[in-house]
From TrEMBL:
EC number: 2.4.2.2
Sequence ranges assigned to domain Pyrimidine nucleoside phosphorylase C-terminal in this UniProt record: 345-419
Glycosyltransferase is among the record's keywords: yes
GO molecular function terms listed in the Swiss-Prot or TrEMBL record: 1,4-alpha-oligoglucan phosphorylase activity; thymidine phosphorylase activity
Protein name according to UniProt: Pyrimidine-nucleoside phosphorylase
GO CC, alphabetical: cytosol
Pfam family, one: Glycos_trans_3N
Catalytic activity: thymidine + phosphate = 2-deoxy-alpha-D-ribose 1-phosphate + thymine; 2'-deoxyuridine + phosphate = 2-deoxy-alpha-D-ribose 1-phosphate + uracil; uridine + phosphate = alpha-D-ribose 1-phosphate + uracil
InterPro entries assigned to the protein according to its UniProt record, in alphabetical order: Glycosyl_Trfase_fam3, Glycosyl_Trfase_fam3_N_dom, Glycosyl_Trfase_fam3_N_dom_sf, Nuc_phospho_transferase, PYNP-like_C_sf, PYNP_C, Pyrmidine_PPas_bac/euk, Pyrmidine_PPase_CS
GO process terms (BP): pyrimidine nucleobase metabolic process; pyrimidine nucleoside metabolic process
Family as reported in the entry's similarity comment: Belongs to the thymidine/pyrimidine-nucleoside phosphorylase family.
Transferase found in the keyword field: yes
NCBIfam families in alphabetical order: PRK05820.1 (NF004490), PRK06078.1 (NF004747), Y_phosphoryl (TIGR02644)
Length: 441
């Protein structure tokens, strides 16, 4: 078998066998296939596509390219959730303790933020002493005892994906549904959970800007998970504005805690409840989404979810006192508001620009080695459809550097479009994709 022949086959719109895909992934991972040949292959895929079987075979080959988490020692049906990334997306901090407090094991591997997309690991480090560097035995023990543990991704988890993604990033081969889906799902399959719930964002702050593209990605990932023998659901949620009102690590942790106290914003609660409901459905804990939502709401009213969050933080070495008193979390030194330049309605928000504002303040990473300032961020006062008056606060910025703050204020102001007509209200959740089809909500 020769890589040249496989590139030529895909260039001529041929379909690759599983053995041929395994050969490509193994060869590129071990270095016997060079970057220039892999680049040519990726471009051929972008131009001519892959069918569902090829995409599933590619995903499984990448999942098998390194370590795979063995969660067989964890009692019960293991559930996990993955988001395609957004601004203000702190759902893992809300839904994980809700689900775990119902006795369902949440065994989660999460990443750090890069660019303006926040990472769950960074948010959790708002709690002094918290560690995601658990051994496999510690991870399994915590899930069995607490029903919840979150660790960072190991260096050798789906290494083929890491290597291929770096190449795609510099060869204009990122925006292909098969390549995107296989990248996400290879890590989820290698992580070992039985049930995978995918939060597929759509809108101005999402990787997929259009609903049609988000739906296509959701279908592809559910198909992959189903072929691989995992119960897989994809929930398409709105990212035409930040989720909730807070953007920035400590601020998002505070908002997640307030949500578990029953005091959170409606959009964050609804998205978290919907995602968590499908985790319960997949685990066999509820017979319907309606039943699942009632069970989850009870974990908030009874404070069981809040207590579970504190138990989880303590279990990984963190100081959980901040769960009950968010004033203990680190605060930024400078607080300034950004004011509306005129009257009207918020007709559009360039959500990715809101994320970039947080990045400018120091709340995100420009490179993998950047150090995040956990205390900075944004509190959103005006969201889509809200009426505004000239001089009224659109948002509050939290900063520790005046120069960064000055640049961030201009960036945030540019993210808002204020017009004369009130826009139509957008749903928090658009649709759910299962192996049986698409449920429009």
């Amino acid at each position: 078998m020769q890589m040249y022949d496989l590139i030529d086959k895909k260039k001529k719109k041929g379909n690759l066998t599983r053995e041929e895909i395994d050969f490509i992934i193994k060869g590129y991972t071990d270095g016997t296939i060079p970057d220039y040949q892999m680049s040519a292959f990726l471009m051929a895929v972008c131009l001519n596509g892959m069918n569902q079987k090829e995409t599933a075979d590619l995903t499984i080959a990448m999942a098998n390219s390194g370590d795979r988490m063995d969660l067989s020692k964890i009692t019960g049906v293991k559930v996990d959730k993955h988001s395609t990334g957004g601004v203000g997306d702190k759902t893992s901090l809300v839904l994980s303790p809700m689900v775990a407090s119902l006795g369902i094991p949440v065994a989660k591997m999460s990443g750090r933020g890069l660019g303006h997309t926040g990472g769950t690991i960074d948010k959790l480090e708002s709690f002094p002493g918290f560690s995601t560097s658990l051994t496999t035995d510690q991870f399994i023990a915590n899930v069995n005892k607490i029903k919840m543990a979150i660790v960072g991704q190991t260096a050798n988890l789906a290494p083929a994906d890491k290597k291929i993604y770096a190449l795609r990033d510099v060869t204009a081969t990122v925006d292909n549904i098969s390549l995107i889906a296989s990248s996400i799902m290879s890590k989820k399959l290698a992580s070992g959970s039985d049930v995978i719930v995918l939060d597929v964002k759509t809108g101005s702050g999402a990787f997929m800007k259009s609903y049609e593209d988000s739906l296509a990605l959701a279908k592809e990932m559910v198909q992959i998970g189903t072929i691989a023998g995992r119960k897989t659901y994809a929930v398409i949620t709105d990212m035409n504005q930040p989720l909730g009102n807070m953007v920035g690590n400590n601020l998002e942790v505070m908002e997640a805690i307030h949500t578990l106290k029953g005091e959170g914003p409606a959009d964050l609660l609804e998205v978290s409840l919907t995602l968590a409901s499908y985790m319960l459905l997949g685990a066999g804990r509820a017979a319907s989404i309606e039943e699942a939502k009632e069970l989850l709401k009870e974990t908030i009213s009874s404070k069981k979810a809040l207590e579970k969050l504190a138990e989880f933080i303590e279990g990984q070495g963190g100081n959980s006192e901040a769960v009950y008193n968010t004033d203990l979390l680190e605060k930024a030194k400078i607080v300034e508001e950004v004011y509306a330049p005129g009257d009207g309605y918020v007709t559009y928000i360039h959500t990715d620009e809101v994320g970039m504002t947080s990045l400018l303040l120091g709340g995100g990473r420009e490179t993998k080695d950047s150090i995040i300032d956990l205390s900075v961020g944004i509190k959103i006062h005006k969201k889509l459809g809200d009426p505004v008056l000239k001089g009224e606060a659109l948002a509050t910025l939290y900063a520790n550097d005046q120069n960064k703050l000055n640049r961030a204020k201009a960036r945030l102001l540019g993210a808002y479009v204020i017009g004369k007509e009130q826009p139509e209200e957008k749903p928090y959740v658009y649709a759910v994709v299962t192996k049986d089809g698409v449920l429009q909500l």
